[in-house]
Amino acid sequence: MSNEPDGWIPEIDSALSKWSQGDCTIGGDCWFVTRFDPQRPLKPSSQDVAAADADADLAESAVSGFVVVTQTCDLVRSCLDRPFLEISPLVKVDAELLAEIKRLKRPSYAYIAGVADRFLVADLVREAWALPNRVMTVEKAVVARWERIPGCQSDADIRSLAEALARKRSRFAFPDDFNKFAQKLQKRMQDKHEKTTDEGEALRALREIRVSATPAWDADAVELIFWFIRAEEDDRFQNKEWYELLDSWLKFLPASGRFSSVDGSVVTLEDMTAKEYVNSDRLDLDRLSSN
Fold first, then answer.
1. For 78-98, b where at least 16 C-beta lie within 10 A, e where not — what string?
2. What secondary structure does DSSP assign to 182-248, as a single string?
3. Helix (H) or strand (E) holding 14
4. pLDDT, tens digit, for every residue of 255-284?
5. Which of 41, 57, 272, 284 could disulfide-pair with 46, CB 3.0 to 4.6 Å?
6. What 8-state DSSP symbol labels residue 18?
7. Residue 65: enclosing H or E segment and its boundaries?
8. Against a cut of 0.70, is the pTM above it?
9. Which residue stretches of 29-175 are H helix?
């Protein structure tokens, strides 16, 4: 590559023209970098760096690889106009968690088809004490040198990744009293989700859980409906079994305080109207699990 910018720019632009959102690189020298206050380092990795060098304010963590999360339309813009892009680290998960991520049940992660055979996923916002927040900005020239692994293999993969990335920034903030109200159900699901029982299998078969509030979340009296949306392709349970499970889950949600009534239904997406879906809010399984 030329040492003059006039030589760099066409080469960088040419290299990035082949990249799309979701493309990855793995192996090699992949380090996730965060800046910290050397006087007040919060994470163990930052504390270790500060202890070794009182003037340092950057901490590095080795990762398996990176996935580009910037939209494709910005990736292919000239680096003169758009010099930066965002990347997230790839982390290894087990087969069960990979399946949940693929079905959009774990919004802290995103499924990347191109590296799924290696059990790697994008780590977006995992909140573990030892790990930094999981998006990093780099100049396009950095990515131009990487070996590209195509991430999305179909239109469905592209849509799924876009939804996972959008949910990272758009998760609904439920009212504090609702979070307290739903604690018993959440604890039940935490305790049973991984169990090899009918209830555990049913919880893993849910596509998502949504909650609607009528007339509004901030009303003095609120009627709640919990929508337990099961995957259409999962036919392990009959309707009677689902109704029995639903009844047991609703017992953890007795009406109290502002929440004057509570109802629920086990449905597929085909059973819901578009209005019912958009007027409800997703209760993410990441809020129901320690993962």
1. ebeeeeebbbbbbbebeeebb
2. THHHHHHHHHHTTSSSHHHHHHHHEEEEEEEEES-TTSSSEEEEEEEEE-TT--SS-HHHHHHHHHH
3. helix 5-16
4. 999 999 999 999 999 999 999 999 999 887
5. 41
6. T
7. strand 65-68
8. no
9. 44-52, 72-75, 95-102, 140-144, 155-170
